[in-house]
Specification:
alpha+beta; 4-stranded antiparallel beta sheet; 11% strand
Length: 566
């Protein structure tokens, strides 16, 4: 028996260890796009502010539509210890919140007295790679992962009748990111089903105060346009709700949005059949208990109702998180389709469908006392979780590895060319970022990565044409230079880069692998790579345009032609 436990425990550890390895191996210590405001700019202002009032204002100052107090406190914690700003640490810190979420689920699961191996599908669903833009992008890492942790913590504490601590955790969730306000809806639902109206009143008053302060001074962020879009295309919101919940079935991230979204919509709808049944069971049971009705309830209510104290507490925990997830799906389905339907299954949101499947599975096996149904539910869940986990490695690990290369060379561009990490070259936003990051470097708070130093040194040495075995073409297209390599093969250990250089400047551009457009739905990429170099990203002057290939054997390449930027 102990041997079996050890083996199953080892199986549970596999997705966790692999997930941590992916983070450590692919994290790049650079900010990207929305990272500048809540991290380097926040830290700069914090250092230059002396008063407690200014520090408090900076902590609660919104970033876009979010007040990410928790993320800023994590940044200050690392700065206080090291005097540095490190984005890899921020990625790791965010990951710790997700590890904490797993611990909360396991802690509550033990209350259910279910066989412990029934927990096996949970880590495979939670620690897959589809939400890489959460755990490898600092702002998302310290928004989504903390809010999910604190919502889960609040629901666990509430289910265990530790009301004061549940309130505190709910406040922390609220000030992790904007969707943390839904924790108050989750807690209210639990307290209503308990008919605990005293605690419900305190919960609602505290929630109203927290939410009121949260939105004080915030703008609507253009949500009026989202409402108008919904009125014009309501079907997209309906489909978006189910696509969001079924997002883990987005197995083909490089395909068209129609191809990608069909399976998530179908599976989101299918899983909601059980979730709806479970919710109806809870509501009808509460209705009968509250109003003492003699009306006979449907048979499924008796079949799926639980009375054992530990299992009931576990289901309250699950219910609270489910309400939080459904609120997210409703709001995303309502407000986000105007940005494109792809947003319903974007990587940033993929933690939520993972939790949705976990809740659906755990609610099912904890709602039935029939061993055969529990076993079948477990068998289905473990099969699906392994399928999703394996597909996430097959489909998303190459995306993660290519993004690491992209961020690495654009870290160089940001340091030496004043752009590269998410803003249009030479725009006002790019100038703001350039000034900000140069100040961070001059203050010895931040250091750009050095991984590209060898590549840069080798490129600067190149004076000869590209080797004869390079099948490379370069042509002008509408203010851009299109560079194509017809032979490159996708690999984590190789890379193809275009460069534009003269004695004063060196610009780097990563060639992206060609996406496969054939009939094989499981194939993501095709041989070859390409990149478009906008002429507007280059300062006026005469340059050598070239290409290099990086492999375990070193850096090879040469010059394609000379170009002049007027």
């Amino acid at each position: 028996m102990n041997k079996n436990k050890l083996m199953l425990g080892g199986l549970m550890a596999i997705p966790i260890v692999f997930w941590v390895f992916v983070i450590l191996n692919n994290s790049v210590n650079v900010p990207w796009y929305d990272d500048f405001d809540p991290f380097p700019d926040f830290l700069r202002q914090w250092i230059n502010s002396a008063s407690f009032a200014d520090h408090l204002r900076l902590l609660f100052q919104p970033n876009n539509e979010h007040r990410m107090v928790i993320g800023k406190l994590v940044t200050l914690f690392y700065y206080g210890i090291t005097g540095q700003l490190n984005f890899t640490f921020l990625h790791i810190a965010g990951a710790c919140f997700t590890l904490g979420t797993l611990w909360l689920f396991w802690t509550s699961f033990k209350d259910s007295n279910l066989k412990w191996w029934y927990f096996l599908p949970v880590p495979f669903l939670l620690f897959q790679l589809q939400y890489h833009l959460v755990f490898l992008w600092a702002i998302c890492s310290l928004q989504h992962q903390p809010v999910i942790f604190f919502v889960s913590l609040s629901m666990l504490l509430l289910a265990r009748n530790r009301f004061g601590w549940a309130l505190l955790a709910a406040v922390c969730a609220t000030y992790s990111m904007s969707n943390g306000i839904f924790v108050w809806v989750s807690g209210a639902v639990i307290l209503i089903l308990r008919s605990n109206y005293k605690w419900l009143g305190i919960w609602c008053i505290t929630g109203a105060a927290a939410i009121g302060f949260y939105f004080f001074g915030l703008t609507t962020q253009g949500n009026e346009s989202s409402i108008a879009y919904f009125k014009q295309y309501p079907h997209l919101s309906f489909l978006g709700f189910f696509a969001f919940l079924g997002g883990l079935f987005d197995f083909f991230p490089e395909k068209t949005i129609v191809t990608r979204s069909v399976l998530p919509v179908i599976m989101g709808l299918a899983v909601m059949v059980w979730v709806g049944t479970w919710l109806l069971t809870l509501v009808l049971s509460w209705f009968k208990k509250t109003f003492n009705t003699a009306q006979k309830l449907p048979d499924f209510v008796d079949a799926f109702s639980v009375v054992e104290k530990g299992r009931k507490s576990f289901q309250e925990f699950l219910l609270g998180i489910l309400v939080f997830l459904l609120m997210n799906a409703l709001v995303i389905g309502l407000l986000r389709p105007r940005f494109g339907f792809f947003v319903m299954i974007v990587s940033n949101y993929k933690m939520y469908p993972a939790l949705f499947l976990i809740i659906a599975y755990l609610s099912f096996i904890s709602s039935t006392v029939k061993i055969n149904l529990q076993q079948r539910g477990f068998q289905l869940a473990i099969a699906l979780s392994l399928l999703i986990w394996c597909f996430s490695i097959y489909s998303y690990l190459p995306v993660i590895q290519e993004r690491k290369k992209y961020l690495s060379i654009n870290g160089y561009n940001q340091e030496f060319n004043g752009y590269g990490l998410g803003h249009v070259p030479f725009s006002a936003a790019a100038k703001y970022v350039d000034i900000l990051m140069k100040e961070m470097v001059s203050m010895n708070i931040y250091k750009f990565p050095v991984e590209t130093d060898h590549l840069v040194t080798e490129i600067k040495k190149l004076q000869t044409p590209v080797p004869a075995n390079f099948d490379i073409s370069a042509k002008m297209l509408d203010g851009k230079i299109l560079i194509q390599d017809s032979t490159a093969k996708l690999s984590s250990n190789t890379g193809q880069y275009a460069f534009v250089k003269n004695k004063d400047q060196l610009y780097l551009f990563k060639l992206e692998p060609n996406k496969y457009a054939g009939k094989n739905i499981f194939r993501q990429y095709f041989n070859g790579s390409n990149v478009e170099v906008p002429l507007t990203s280059l300062l006026p002057g005469s340059y050598d345009l070239g290409v290099v290939k990086v492999s375990e054997g070193g850096v090879t390449g040469g010059i394609l032609r000379t170009i002049t930027i007027p």
